[in-house]
Design a protein that fits this description.
Blueprint: H1 2-9, E1 22-27, E2 30-36, E3 47-55, E4 64-67, E5 76-78, H2 82-92, E6 102-107, E7 110-116, E8 127-135, E9 144-147, E10 156-158, H3 165-168, H4 171-180, H5 188-191, E11 194-197, H6 218-231, E12 237-247, E13 257-269, E14 272-274, E15 280-283, E16 286-289, E17 297-299, E18 307-309, E19 312-315, E20 321-325, E21 328-330, E22 333-335, E23 338-339, E24 351-355, E25 359-361, E26 364-366, E27 369-371, E28 375-379, E29 390-392, E30 395-397, E31 406-412, E32 421-423, E33 426-435, H7 441-445, E34 447-449, E35 451-455, E36 458-462, E37 466-467
Parallel strand pairs: 2-3, 7-8, 11-12, 12-13, 13-15, 13-16, 14-17, 15-18, 16-19, 17-20, 18-22, 19-23, 20-24, 21-25, 22-26, 23-27, 24-28, 26-29, 27-30, 28-31, 29-32, 30-33, 31-33, 32-34, 33-35, 33-37
Antiparallel strand pairs: 1-2, 3-4, 4-5, 6-7, 8-9, 9-10, 35-36
């Protein structure tokens, strides 16, 4: 043992490494440690399992190997370290994308994944159907392509993303698809235009298509809408009117348009005579007039589908009517509106709502507050065809007067069966519901029932009205 210690302390260095492997420790099981500049060739005999080989000129972490084979057939593999993992990954990485497409994955069907700076030319063979090509210098949504051709003749097209949707699909392409499906290709048929009106910031020279480029007047917005309607009658447009007083006498309403007053009280000061207001729906707008003996709003013929919701009509003088409907229209709706000046009886209309046309079929007057010292609702004798007019859930009175009542709540002047339906109204009037005509069937043929009437100071349910 003393000799062994001396030998270890005074050991002469072993020879330098060469291509021929040199053993540094050997047991009866075989070589346990060795070194050299060349890793032992697989299947070489004599190296014990677990033998460590030190690669004397190894680099990049490739310095120590271990035999995972047998003493009769070695299999040296690199020991794993942080450095050589990184080196192995780098060595295994695919080359940088170049003009020629590089293959990432390939099956018997062809190349299934590839990349490069140039998209494969159409008709090139070898790319499987559905092969993904990554365009390594693609921009604006042109980073991924898919082969929609065949393995024999490729056809790579850019995958649609949010970035490239509007640049890769044109209006003509949309139109062609819709035409092929038998659909109306007019994109505006669904969405329509949105018009903005703002008396403070708007200008009638603007296009009115955004709040920043609003029109100054309601009339300018109506003109723009109707020009668009005349060019294409399909769109259902929208108009937003910012809170302000607009002093205008309107001669037209927007066709196929929903009008909404926003941001507070929107008031249009003036008197208005319109026709052809089909499918115009107005919400949250106050109409006020100081012109005596004139209706605030006259709606003429061909105004089918005209609607008023949560609107206010009041006069600053003794006006004739708040609302006058003339001509022939259908499906008119007046709902949740205040008609008449409830706090100023002197400015009360002679008639709050008057149907003075030839026919107003399937109209609805529902859940309104109607104020007049004269007549709340009048249906003229000119209504010669069946009207099926529903008047329901309205409050009809003279206003906040403690002594005055309306003269007539509902006045049906037609002389024959017209199919009017008058149900569940609350009326304070000298004559709650009055019919004109000598036919005993006039009242029964107008469905009149369940109306609560305070008539000349006496309250009662009224189902039949009176015949004068």
């Amino acid at each position: 043992m003393a000799h062994m210690g001396w030998e270890l302390e005074n050991m002469v260095p072993a020879p330098a490494a060469t291509a021929t492997v040199r053993a540094s420790f050997v047991t009866e099981d075989g070589i346990m440690e060795c070194y050299g500049t060349t890793v032992p060739t697989d299947t070489t005999a004599g190296y014990a399992p677990g033998c460590v080989f030190q690669h004397a000129d190894g680099a990049g972490g490739a310095t120590r190997y271990v035999n995972e084979g047998s003493v009769t057939s070695c299999d040296f593999n690199l020991m794993i370290t942080t450095d050589n993992i990184n080196a192995q990954v780098a060595a295994a990485s695919a080359p940088v994308g170049a003009g020629t497409a590089q293959t990432l994955r390939q099956t018997a069907d062809g190349i299934t994944s590839s990349y490069g700076t140039t998209v494969p030319v159409d008709t090139t063979a070898g790319y499987a159907v559905g092969c993904i090509f990554q365009h390594t210098d693609g921009t604006n949504g042109t980073a991924l392509y898919v082969n929609e051709g065949s393995a024999a003749s490729c056809d790579f097209n850019a995958l649609t993303t949010g970035e490239n949707l509007m640049t890769t699909i044109t209006t003509d392409q949309i139109t062609a698809v819709l035409n092929a499906a038998g659909l109306n290709p007019n994109v505006n048929a669904t969405f329509g235009n949105v018009y903005w009106v703002d008396a403070d910031t708007g200008d009638d020279s603007n296009d009115g298509l955004s709040s920043e480029n609003a029109f100054e007047t309601v009339g300018a917005a109506i003109t723009a809408n109707n020009v668009a309607f005349d060019a294409d009658s399909d769109p259902m447009n929208t108009m937003y009117i910012h809170s302000k007083t607009y002093t205008e006498n309107l001669t037209a309403f927007p066709k196929n348009c929903t009008v909404v007053g926003i941001g507070g009280k929107v008031r249009i000061q003036g008197y208005h005579v319109v026709d052809h207001a089909q499918n115009c729906r107005i919400h949250n707008v106050q109409f006020r007039s100081s012109t005596a003996s004139e209706p605030i709003l006259t709606v003429g013929s061909s105004s089918h589908g005209f609607e008023l919701h949560k609107c206010v009509f009041e006069g600053q003088a003794a006006i004739s009517e708040c609302l006058l409907f003339t001509g022939n229209s259908s499906d008119i709706v007046i709902e949740e509106c205040r008609i008449g000046y409830e706090t100023n009886v002197a400015n009360s209309p002679d008639i709050a709502i008057r149907f003075g046309g030839v026919a107003n079929q399937r109209g609805k007057v529902i859940n309104n507050q109607i104020f007049s010292t004269g007549i709340g609702i009048q249906i003229d004798a000119t209504m010669i065809s069946g009207n099926f007019l529903l008047i329901k859930d309205n409050v009809i009175c003279a206003g906040n007067s403690t002594t005055d009542q309306a003269t007539i709540g509902i006045f049906d002047k037609t002389s024959g069966p017209k199919g009017g339906i008058y149900v569940h109204n609350f009326i304070s009037a000298a004559d709650g519901i009055q019919f004109v005509g000598t036919s005993v069937n006039v009242t029964s043929e107008n469905l009149c029932m369940g109306n609560w009437v305070n008539q000349a100071g006496t309250a009662s349910w009224e189902d039949g009205g009176t015949i004068d």
